[in-house]
Amino acid sequence: MTEPDFVRLIDYCVKIAKKALSARATFDPFAAVLVRSGAVLPLNVPMTEEHPTLQTLLQEYKILLKTTATRGEVTALALCFDGRVSLEGLSISQVDEIRLRLESVEHDAIDVVVPYRKGGFWGNQYGKMTAVRRKGTFFPDIGAD
Questions:
Q1: pTM metric for this prediction
Q2: CB atoms within 10 A of CB 142
């Protein structure tokens, strides 16, 4: 049941990130949630500064996602941001990436990375999407005291 939820969130987020990257060289972090009705909805932090830093935005999204997860209104959530990843064995040391942190109410959690190279005549070129399991951080652990 979690895999289709994650696929819907991944499709939603990657589409938005690619659209933003085709218009600009980067994109601001954003989040999305899957509500119990099955709809994927954006989740936005209230802007308090005119130009917050990337770290400030990421921290605000983490707090918002954790708060949203504790309310019990969503079944899965995603945080998406523009990052960099080191790829050993390549002639370049780092490439840009679309990075997603996904988590479900069932405590499944993965990080998804879509590497890309910017620009050129043909536009951005996207690499193979990879996913790695991780420990969940947003949804409360029901068994913990």
A1: 0.86
A2: 7
